[in-house]
Amino acid sequence: TPSYSCSVREVELDEDQLEPNKVVSGSPVVSSRVLSTSYNGNVVRGIWKCTEGVVTDVEEDEFFTVVEGQATVIVEGGATMELYPGVAGEFRRGDKTTWHIREPILKTFQITLYDDEDS
Fold first, then answer.
1. Which pLDDT does position 93 carry in this prediction?
2. Which of 72, 91, 100, 106 could share a disulfide with 62, CB 3.0–4.6 Å?
């Protein structure tokens, strides 16, 4: 991918299927757009959005920056993160999270994926 820049708020996102067993409450809608991947496919960069509700997830190694919205993310056995515009954070592969989204969250992300022998 050549060098680029974009307005995060203006990128058209594609709706993703949210597994029903991950929805704790509400009717959240998830959408995203992958902007680029590394030459070997192990690093993925993009934009992610989720509307109000409570959802669970198991994370990959991810660095993110919140652009819009407000949420509290509880990492099982770890941190409680208050997310709002300008906050940057990091998840570790395998973190079990519960997202309490009060205002739709829009974030940029960089995820590092591993082959099983790399973990």
1. 96
2. 91
- Report which residue type is found at 87: V
pTM given for the model: 0.92
Tens digit of each residue's pLDDT (9 = 90 or more) over 19-60: 999 999 999 999 999 999 999 999 999 999 999 999 999 999
Burial class of residue 67 in the structure, from the number of CB atoms within 10 Å of its CB (0-12 exposed, 13-18 middle, 19+ buried):
middle
Cα–Cα distance measured from residue 60 to residue 39, given in angstroms and rounded to the nearest whole number:
19
For residue 30, give Cα distances in angstroms to 1, 77, 78, 107. 25, 25, 24, 12
Q: Are 110 and 62 in contact (CB under 8 A)?
A: yes
> Tokens for 93?
């592969």
